[in-house]
Amino acid sequence: xxxxxxxxxxxxxxxxxxxxxxxIYLNQTFVYAIQAIWTGASASGTVKIQVxxxxxxxxxxxxxxxxxxxxxxxxxxxxxxxxxTQNVSGPGSFFWNFSDAGYPWVKLVFSYNSGTGSLTVxxxxxxx
Length: 128
Known about the structure:
This protein is mainly beta. It has strands spanning about 1-15, 20, 25, 30-40, 45-50, 80, 85-90, 90-100, 105-115, 120-125.
């Protein structure tokens, strides 16, 4: 079984506005997990998972020899994954674990309310 190793979708991004993490192309992925960690005493908002069935290939990003920062740069239609919204209030973290992904794209979204903090998002995938 193919194992992606750690994938960093956001690294210490300042939480003073809405944030969209980089997307993951889930080609032949059976299971995946996403971890969000936020620091800062005053960060407030929500985090949630979004997915897409847009039929677009991944953009070549830096680790693939390209210049883009996000392999999902051409994905247009993002949909909220049901029941994944979590409140952010002060420092904390949350973990989502998914199986049988029938969609090719996933990302994490932070919706800003107030305050500030720092957001790091990590993922791991396993597939065929």
